[in-house]
Hints:
heterodimer, A: 113 residues, mainly beta, 6-stranded mixed beta sheet, 5-stranded antiparallel beta sheet, 0% helix, B: 115 residues, 4-stranded antiparallel beta sheet
Amino acid sequence: DQQVKQNSPSLSVQEGRISILNCDYTNSMFDYFLWYKKYPAEGPTFLISISSIKDKNEDGRFTVFLNKSAKHLSLHIVPSQPGDSAVYFCAASADGSARQLTFGSGTQLTVLP
Amino acid sequence: DAGITQSPRHKVTETGTPVTLRCHQTENHRYMYWYRQDPGHGLRLIHYSYGVKDTDKGEVSDGYSVSRSKTEDFLLTLESATSSQTSVYFCASDTGQGFSGETQYFGPGTRLLVL
């Protein structure tokens, strides 16, 4: 039973437009959420995180939104660039830290020039 | 980025043979992790370590063992490899201090094929 779900295996977006990647979770104890980006043949790299005490966190072109009542988070990338093409994983933990992360299955984002 | 290396980067082995994957970090991180990545499953935790000689099981630990004799090294052993263990294996580490805002840092991965 997956506690963190990314229901869209893939997403294609035109360069310059907004990319929205979604993630749902079922465990109400999760209180810290992260997004990782992964290029082929490389390890995942940290992108952005959000604590459950917030509903939004921004870092440059990347914004993560958290809707606790819906158990849903989303990653917005504006504007999308071809270099953003990668697999994006959301992850969650229940102790407010990066220990004991549960990962989603990932979404392949393709940004078309 | 944290300095995490994995060896080997690629390995082909036969069913029934033992295999050991090595993870080495230079950040003096307390926590280390082994994950496997498979299509449709994302990253699943195999084992983790919260200090030298301190380890615990993750979600998919059957068929795997780990050891950590030094802070910087975390070994993953497949005692008798099976075809179902064909996967990409990632090592990760973090400070383990438990603060919000932390992240795990990942190695480049080891691609294992069990024939």
